[in-house]
Amino acid sequence: MLFRRSCTYNVEQSTRHYAKSSVTLCNLGVGATFGESILHDLPRDSTVVTKTTCELLRVEQQDFRLIWEKNKELMNDIITNCKIKNGFGPGVQPAAATSPTKRPLSPDHPNPALPITETPSPAMNRMGWALRTLLVVDNSSCLKDRKVSGKLIRKCAPGTELVDWLVNLAPIVHTRAQAAGMWQALLEEGVLTHVNKEQPFKDKCFLYRFRLDEEGGAPAAGIPQAEDLSAANEHIREALSALFQRGPDATLRMILRKPSHERTPEELELVFEELVHIAALSHLSTSIKRELSSIIVFEAHAQAGTILFNQGDEGRSWYILLKGSVDVVIHGKGTVATLKTGDDFGKLALINDAPRAATIVLKENNCHLLRVDKEHFNRILRDVEANTLRLQEHGKDVLVLERVAKQRGQHSAFKYTVMSGTPAKMLEHLLETRLGQSVSGMDPFLDDFLLTHIVFMPVVQLVDELANYFHCDAHEEAQTPEDREYIINFKKRVIQFMQKWVMAVRHAAFEEPSVCDFIEDLAAEVEADPDLNEETSIIHNVLTQMARYQEDRNQNAGQKWKLPTNGQPICLFSGNATPSKTVIRPDDDIIFRVYCADHTYCTLRFPMHTTAELIKACAADKLQLNRGPDDLCLVEVKSNGERSVFKDNDVSIPTGLTLNGRLFVSVKDHLDALTQLPEQECPTEGVDIDLEILSTKELAYHITIFEWDLFWAVHEYELLYHTFGRHHFGKITANLDVFLRRFNEVQYWIVTELVSTQSLSKRVGLVRKFIKLAAYCKEYQNLNAFFAIVMGLSNMAVTRLHQTWEKIPSKFRKIFQEFEALIDPSRNHRAYRVFVGKLQPPLIPFMPLLLKDMTFAHEGNKTSLDGLVNFEKMHMMAQTMRTIRFCRSRSLGLEPPSPKSEGEVRSYISSFRVIDNQRVLTAMSQKVEPTRKLN
Ligand code: CMP
Known about the structure:
Belongs to the RAPGEF2 family. This is Rap guanine nucleotide exchange factor 4 isoform X3. InterPro entries: cNMP-bd_dom, cNMP-bd_dom_sf, DEP_dom, RA_dom, Ras-like_GEF, Ras-like_Gua-exchang_fac_N, Ras_G-nucl-exch_fac_CS, Ras_GEF_dom_sf. One of its GO terms (biological process) is Ras protein signal transduction. The chain is of the alpha+beta class. Helix content is 44%, strand content 16%. It is built from 32 helices and 30 strands. Strand 19 and strand 20 form a beta hairpin. Helix 16 runs antiparallel to helix 17. The structure holds adenosine-3',5'-cyclic-monophosphate (CMP). The site of adenosine-3',5'-cyclic-monophosphate has 17 residues, from strand 15, helix 9 and strand 19.
């Protein structure tokens, strides 16, 4: 066995029949090994002839066998690959045995020995023809018929000799590498081929030949005539210069088609230098580009119309378009975008672990792509990939995504989250990435969408879009099994969406007739489609919930509410429902008074959703204000005389009034003439009882039960209506209004009780009782009442009662200080947030803070950014809305402290006697404890 050090050998093969005419099979260079047949005692199957002076390392048969015995595993490779590496041996097959047309271009494992075009371009064909012509007529040429493994190969030449010839021929070629690149340029278009299509062009002893000389080659492949020679000579300069230009790119493409372990350090350097110039990678660090150099793959597709991958497929690679263009096609939409040279695509499915969001179809012949496969993408790029991804349709941004860090317990390390988008595209993205079997782990996008879509996508539009998705097969006549599977998946996602929707917003979904109709249609379709068998139980469950809602609605139809003459509270006075947990509905009636400037009034009865405009018109008519609607307005006059005018399209007006506010209809120009009624300065209606005799714990218990029911009736959507303005939605916020009024009611009840208690000792007793009440409410996790009580005790009219506070035992004062610290608004209510963050449901949150968070998110962020919905804002709002859901996620199961005076306490706490005019309260406080005069 010999190892060559510095020499050139010809390896020649001769058979008995060709004893005198041996064929040079290949040229061996430095590093080659030969003579391995000694291992099996076989006769030498070729002759080795030195071409130059040689230095060899020789291993004797005996030693070779010994080494072999000890290192079989290591040497196996040398022995078996020895011949192949040297360009012949068992791997060498006659060209005809493997037809190039039968070997498809395999994008997964591109073979650098195969052409990247289906047929050579005319220009390359001509260059190849000119070179071949010159080679054939050159008598000393390397292009010879050679026998390989007993088979004659016509007009082939070893790579080394082709390089020699080209270096000699073309003065512009200075290095062997340049010449090799030029031959590779011919090889990648199929003008030149390796004899058995296994090697790209190498400056080695592998044998190559022209396509023209392959079996079935063009008839022109005969011996060139004189005129051919002169035409070739004429063309050759131009051909060489063109090939010279193409060489480096061809070499690079060849490297990029080799498996990573075959890329040499020099080749990796070449790739790296190329990657530096690719815009799609410009944001990546040098070290990442170096890592990419070894695994990035070149992929070429010859035919326009080729589908690179289909929407719904599993994502396996990320692509950069180097040459050509591709169409992005979406089911039911067609081509939504065309990507051009330099664009990248396919990241979404990899990062989101979701199916492909679109089909990619080649728009042109001969598209060139760079590809990074999923495993490498995840290892190298996933953590460092660009933070923002913009998807376009028809030249406009439709979805902007941002990479987010992993949430604990989430399936994938990183996901894209939606920053902004068009409503329809966000819905599409949601259906395709957040629903279906492939999705695991909780992700807030779906929930955010369900909680906030009413801001940017009205229910009717959402139902329309869902119906379109569900019926995406309506216009497709012939369906392949793959299409059918795809369509079924889409239908399944719509059903799952409906289930999640109903779970997230409950009865609010059923309040829209379009939703109910859609659910019924879906149920019918699901039942009729055997492919949707599994979805039957889901849609039936939705149907059951819908039926329950409708039944409840019918039972409670005709609920009536009253806003008593003396302000608050709203009370139910008829209807079938039990008073607890009664939701105020848009078409419930409410009876209320509307006054005019002279304090005469009319009593009206209207559904909750009636607009201010209608109330105004009706009141004006009843009160005989003979003015046109444009001259009039509906106004609230608060107990302190403040006025606030309603918009004509505002709804749920009576519930929106402040505690002791009154509704007026007024001529717009005479608003100044409106004064409050004398009764507004007096306490509201309520049970008069001696508080002292009521157990504090029992009070806290019943307050909590009562407020839990009010809180329970508030729908998360009401926070949105309240924040954006009810008039935008035409939706009532009556339940939220009542709950907020309750907060003020409790707060002012504390103050009213204290300033209207004349006896000092009774006041002291009351303060102690209220501090204890706050403590019990805190214990019951009714933080809304806790805040209201502590705020009431901190009201200026109470804090100034020094004689009272002086008599409060220090133990109570200390507790009160702790309570004050808890409601301290500084650092955005940090103390409260930390405290409440540790609580488990059920709990009643401090609602005004949730509303403040909503307002903060609303006022600090635009709803629309460059025509796209600012979904970050929706996410912020949904977080607050989810707090409500969390608080109510367990039902309230408090142990009643004692059943003794239940009825009495319950009726007392349900409507407190309240003065909400601060001036009056301060005056009363002054009266019970006049300000001490300083001597
Ligand atoms: P992915 O979902 O992995 O596969 C299809 C790719 O098409 C997708 O990633 C995006 O990179 C790309 N694409 C470009 N424009 C759009 C678009 N408007 N909608 C969806 N995908 C798009």
